[in-house]
What does this fold into?
Amino acid sequence: MDKFSFLNAAHSQLIEDLYQQYLQYPDSLEPSWKSFFQGFDFALENYSDQDFSPTQYAQNSLANNGVSDDILNEFKVVNLIDAYRSRGHLFTKTNPVRTRRHHVPTLDLENFGLSQNDLTKKFNSAVEIGMNGAATLQEIINQLGTIYCDSIGVEYMHILNVEEKSFIKNWIQNNNNQAKLEAKEKVEILHKLNQAVAFENYLHTKFVGQKRFSLEGGESLIPALDQLITRSSQLGVDEVVLGMAHRGRLNVLTNIFGKSYKQIFSEFEGKEFEEDVFSGDVKYHLGASTKIKTERGEEVKINLTPNPSHLETVAALVEGICRAKVDIEYNDYKKVLPIVIHGDGAIAGQGIVYEIAQMMTLDGYKTGGTVHIVVNNQVSFTTNYLDARSSMYCTDIAKVTDSPVMHVNDDDVEAVVHAIRFAAEFRARFGKDVYIDLLGYRKYGHNEGDEPRFTQPNLYKSISKHPNPREIYKDKLLKEGIVSDAVIKEMEGDFKKLLDIDYDASKEIIKNAMPVFMEDVWSNYSLAEKGALLKKYNTSYDLAALKALAQQISTLPKDKKFLNKITRLFEARLKMIDNNSLDWAMGELLAYATLLAEGNSIRISGEDVQRGTFSHRHAVLKTEDTEEKYTPLAQVNSNQRFDIYNSHLSEYGVLGFDYGYAVAAPNTLTIWEAQFGDFTNGAQIIVDQYLVAAEDKWKMQNGLVMLLPHGSEGQGAEHSSARLERFLTLAANENIIVANCTTPANYFHLLRRQMKFSFRKPLVVMTPKSLLRHPKAVSQLEDMANGEFQPILDDITVDASKVEKLVFCSGKLYYELLSKREELNDTTTALVRMEQLYPLQMDIIEEILNKYSNRKSLIWAQEEPENMGAWSFILRHFRHTDMQVVAPVPSGCPAPGSHKMFEKNQTDVINRVFGCNDAPTSRPVTA
It folds into this structure.
């Protein structure tokens, strides 16, 4: 009885209390207590003639008197069953090419106080696993092995929710965790397997040595996806959004999305795209959108999101796209299904996986559950899985969100289908993530020119002799009499003929076509013509209506009690309106209010965005007593959405999510705000691979706005720069807009202009910190009502004919230069602000240069180090002028950590602009 030693010191009242806790929250107990009470409940149910309490049962368990050996042995069998549920996945037949290394503790009988002599004894515990009445221990073990240790290994005992756990237990015990398929369904599965295998074989023979990142060794993914879409559509899904990396993508494009084999073959020829303004992308990164009819007759829209080689990045976009679909089209999470296909190395090694997993139940980011499928070929690039992770399974991220996992042998396609159907049903019922780990192998190396035997010689000896899943399933169906040799030969022959016809036809294609991703969503938005970003757009708004909106969003409801600070802040906003002097926050909020009134929706997300990192926005208020939320902008137009969400502490995942949201929501102003601008460093992959390149690679427009607080204010290296230089380096062919505004009115028009375009372009804004409350950074209502966005703000306070020094600058430095000019009473220096740094309005710049024709010097001034900020970009555009730069010396850090050093640098820059110190002469531009 050593295993019940935990009972020795137990007080009777404690046992009774623990039992009551067990009845309400069984998973909150220490495992040994939980197992004990399971045995007690079993005894109550099956030995009702004996009347005892949990305490008496405990005592009897120790003393072994008063309770029969039968009851104690039943208890042991219950423990054995519980062990199979918890650890059975460690002893499965899920690996097609490796022998599983067994883990301890084992499931040997001796570990549960049972012996070989008990195998022929009958136990009522059999009903616990769905058996009809008592069964021998041997029969129980056989049943447990079938359910938990065959081609599917199930992890679910870590889940806390009792209803979810009960659902999973019943689901897998039903039919002994094996698929029950009709003959017709089996033939359909064989057909999809044949397509998958034959397509890969054809490519291998026709395009020898070309990269295709084949699915060979994991071909069961194709019938799995087919079944997932079919079953999900029966459960109410109308649209699917799929994200995956390159492995198996061509197979998915053709055999799930119906992309013509002819087009794929043509792309292997490396032909140019029809639109020569696009760079295009390699064939295994391209996306697709289409509508299919399942074998059961349901119509489903399916989308394959374009992806870069950064393996898990696309998952963030999938979630964002799905959320936009829910918000805008369906208003029901069950109607849209996100599917993310991972590699085993990527899901374990890429940090963004964790960021996305944590979105599962968050108000601003949930999508009703994602089906994660791991194409687990047990080789991360060329690395043995033992070098790829420390966790037992690549899917252990599932435990973070209490999500179930099914590990499945990819060779057993019926087991794969069974697991996939479970995923569809679990997700539909509980709205949570579910993980399917398809254990297969990779027939060739990372790409078809790679030699995997360099690093895995023994594994690839086994793989070279291993039959593919089609051959395995074909033999199975032949033995079952489901199909004949003639039918199989006809199936294979017909498909080969189709491939041959399409291969010949592909030779006739002169240039490849690139369809628009989600074309139905983007039908009203044409691609921008060259120069479109430099045109003027009407962003005005009726003055009286603007003032009314300003008053509406600044007036708090009288029946709610807010913090005194909030009350005073909103009173101050009303005074601003009366005084016709609006600060940055009012300019921003009015941009949102007017867009809402005009019929646009708005989504803002990021860390602390509801109040704003610097407490300027206060878009969502909490009442003092009940913490009830009140959102003034949500009252503007009840027919439009105003959503603003504080995100979890993530940049990479959240920026990807919001970029994805904007992909599917062109009529929504979608904004991501960084807490500090330099935090976008953590999301650089989204910037590099999507934000600046997606239109060029995939013809994919996006209107995402990035708000990046920027400015040197003595806060150290990490809170000063949004890395303006990086965005300007990435800017080309009018792919993005980069702005650094200095007035609330110009910011107002900049945000409004974003929705006035007949196309969509990403907007990157260096937003202010100190200017949020700067007394001179204010605008009048008339500037917003009657104005338009000004890409360059000329100096209207000086006489151009008397100007000797023309200074171009950007951002908050302008106000510091202005203050110094006023201090010096300087009338010969003009300060011109570059409000839009990309694309530069060169025609206006030429006019300004001509206007100040009497100037003796031309300066670019910046507070960023000379090797950062906009200077390198400006230099490229002013290389044939005599422009000089005034900036801090080059540095590896954006700003010094010492506040005194910051002040010294800043003062030095300002003084050098006005020539009033002995600092080194500014470096001139040399042609």
Observations:
- The chain has four domains: 2-177, 183-506, 534-786, 792-924.
- The radius of gyration is 33 Å.
- The chain has a mean pLDDT of 89.
- Residues 183-506 form a domain with the Rossmann fold fold (CATH 3.40.50.970).
